[in-house]
Design brief:
The protein is of the alpha+beta class. It has two domains: about 1-30, no CATH class; about 50-80, no CATH class. The protein is built from two helices and three strands; from the N terminus they run βββαα. It has a three-stranded antiparallel beta sheet with strand order 1-2-3, with no helix packed on it. It is elongated and about 40 Å long.
């Protein structure tokens, strides 16, 4: 899943988003109607990938779909 990610949890639309901060990345979930949000599971794990500017520029010319995890990992040569 690529963030931000919008889905239905607790029978209402909500979004999982992130805020980059110095030394950490804050991940949060909020409901679109500002009611009580469904908590994020502590079992979820996240990865982040930092893509240097030159790589991103080359990828733009090749139409890499960064929202497709497999395509992105294939392009940058990362294996599971």
């Amino acid at each position: 899943m690529v963030l931000p990610y919008t889905s239905y949890a607790g029978d209402k639309p909500n979004t999982i988003a992130f805020i980059p901060m110095t030394g950490k990345i804050l991940v949060s979930r909020f409901t679109h109607d500002n009611s009580n949000s469904v908590n994020l599971s502590t079992l979820l794990q996240y990865r982040y990938v930092i893509i240097p500017g030159g790589v991103a520029a080359r990828a733009a010319k090749l139409n890499i779909d960064w929202t497709n995890y497999e395509a992105a990992m294939h392009f940058i040569g990362t294996q599971e």
